[in-house]
Amino acid sequence: VFLQLQVHGFSDSVGETNDEMAEHYKIIDSICNGSVKINGSNDNLNSYITSSNSVRRGSGNGGVCLLGLTGLRNLGNTCFMNSAIQCLAHTPEIVDYFLGDYQKEINYENPLGLNGELALAFGDLLRKLWAPGGIPVAPRMFKLKLANFAPQFSGYNQHDSQEFLAFLLDGLHEDLNRVKCKPYLEAKDAEGQPEEEVAEEYWRNHRARNDSIIVDLCQGQYRSMLVCPVCNKVSVTFDPLMYLSLPIPSTTMRTMTVTVLSTDGSTMPAPFTVTVPKYGRFQDLIDALSTKCFLRNHEKLLVAEIYRSKIFRVLDEPSDLLGLIRDEDKLVAYRLPKDSETPSLVLFMHERKEESCHLGRLSLEWKIFGTPLVGRLSDLTNGSDIRKLFLKLLDPFLMPVGDDSDFSDEAGKIDNGDSIVEDVTSSRVSDNDAVSDSSEAGDEPHLSDDFQFYRLDSIRPTEIKMNEPLSISDFAKPLTIHVQWAEKMIEKYDTCLLSSLMEVCKPQLFTRMPPESVSLYKCLEAFLKEEPLGPEDMWYCPRCKKHWQASKKLDLWRSPDILVIHLKRFSFSRYFKSKLDTYVDFPIDDLDLSNYVCCKNSQLSNRYVLYAISNHYGGMGGGHYTAFVDIDYHSAFKQYEYLKTQITSVQLGHKRWFEFDDDRVYPVSEDNIKTSAAYVLFYKRVSDVK
Fold it and tell me: Catalytic residue at 541?
C-alpha cells in the first residue's frame, strides 16, 4: 500500500535545517517502499488514497499527506456532532480498535443495538479520518445510522455534544456487546458485608451482561449512599459510570435584599441584605436569610415575590435557580411556626378607594395597595376571629398618638399577660373605632366604619359577617381575604411603611466584576458533596415502608481508563435557562484522583493526562462547537508497527495540539487550550511515576 505521511512542524516556516528536511523525506521514501500492517492484518487503504488527497510542501520533494488531521463537514448545525466525533476519533485505544478487525465482535442479535450498523458506520468514518489526505469528510451515512438509534438527532437542529456523545457510546456498546445472551442476575441484600466484596459483586454482575470495548475503556464504578431522615436506614449500591457530570460551583457572589414580616404582629417589617452565590439555588437564599434574621428553631420562612401589591409567586422549590430573581423584583419572607400539622394560613390583601378617570369622568374605585399580610388561624369560628387577627398583624403599623401611645407601650412592657396586651392593642386603634369582643358581635354597623372583609374563593366576593361562622373547605390552601379600608383608618396606620418594599438589588453603574474562576477539583468536590434529594425524587425506605426525602452521597469507587468529564454549564428550571461561562482551571498533564477514589485495593493508577476538549462558544440561543485534540503520534500509530519505528527516529514532539473547527484544522499552542468554553474533557490513564 502506497502510504505517505506529513508531520506538522517539519516545514521551512519553523526554521528547519536542510539536513532535517532531508532526513524527513528520506523516511517518507522508505515508508513508500514498504508495507503497512494494521493490528497484524493487511487492510487495504487504497479506497481512501487518491492523488487529489495529497498536500504538497516545498518543491521537488514529492507529495506528502496528512494523517489524523482531517476535518468534518458541517451538514447543517452538526458542529456538536463533529466536535464529539473528533475527540472520540483521537482516542488511541478507539483508533487502534476500529482500524483493526473489529467486525468479528459485532453483535447482530442484540435487540438494543442496530445490528452493527452504527458500529460499521462509525468504523468507516474513523478510517476515513485516519486515511492519508486532508480533504474533509461529510458524515452523512454516519448521521443517518445514528438517527435510527437516537431519533432526536434525525433533523438539523442544534444539540448538546455531551448528550450526543452519551448516545453514541451507548449505541456503540450495544452493537459491540460480546454478550450474546444476557443472564438474569438478581441483586442480593449486601447489608453487613464488606464494601469491597459488595462492589466486586456488583461489577461482576454488570460485566456479565455488558462486555464491549466501550465498557473496557470508558466505564467505571461509583458508590451511592442513601440515608433515611427518619430511621437512619443506610442503603449502599454500586453503579457503573460512563462519564462524570460535574456542577460548576459559583465563586461570584450576589447581594439580595428581602423584607421579613412577622405573622403574629410582634415586629415591624425589616429589610435584610444577604450575600449568596450568583448562580446558586433558592435554598442558599433561605439559609443565608435564616441566619441573618436570627430565625428560631421552631420557625420557617415563606418567601414570595410581590408584584402590584399581590403575591406573584411563592418561592417554595429549594432547587430552583436564583437567576429566576431579577434585581428589580421585590421579595418578602413571612416568619411562620414550623408545625407538624398544617395550620390554616390567612392572606390579607388591602384595598382603598382611589380616584379613577373613565371616559372623561372621575369616579372612586377600590384598588389594591400595600404589602399582603399573612397570619395563622388554627381555630376558625366566625368573622370576628378574622378581624382580631388582622388588627394584630396591623399593630406594628399603627401611627403613634402623643403620650397615650407611649403610656400604652410602657403598659405592655410592665404586664406580659394576654389580657393587658389585648387592651393595649385595642386602645391604640382609637377610642371610638376599636371595640371589645362583646361589642364586635353586636354592633356590626359600627364595625363597618373601619374595615370590611370579603372572601374571594367564589365567583363573586362574599362579605364576611362578624357573627357568622366560617366554613373552610381546604385547610391546606391559604384563605384569601380582601380588606377594604375606611379613609379614617388609612390616617391611623402607616400605609407608607405598609407599601414600601425594597428591590432585591439596586443596580450600580460602572461596576466591573472580575472574571469568575474555579478549579476542576472544586467541581469534583461539589459533585461528591452530600445533599438531600428533591421532592420529585423521593426514596422509598424499606424499613419505614414510606417515601422520604433522603440525603444522597456519591463517591468514586473504580476509575475508568478513559475518563470523560462533562462540565454542567447549562442550567434549566421551570421558568429559566442559562449558561455558565465560568473559567474552569483543569489540569493538563496530571489530574490526580487518588484522594477521590474510595477503593484503595486497586493496582491501577488514578492519574490522568488530558488529550481532547469539546468546546462550546456562545449562549443558550445559539452557539458553536469546536474541539482541541492532542495528537500523540507515538500512541496513535500503535497499529502501524513499521511506521511507529520510523517516526520515533525523527524525534517527534510528544504533544501537538490542534483545533478542529468543522472542516478546518489549525495547530494551537498548549497555552491556549484552557478557555471558559471548555465543555467536555477527555482524559486517559497514565501509570504512576515510581
Answer: no
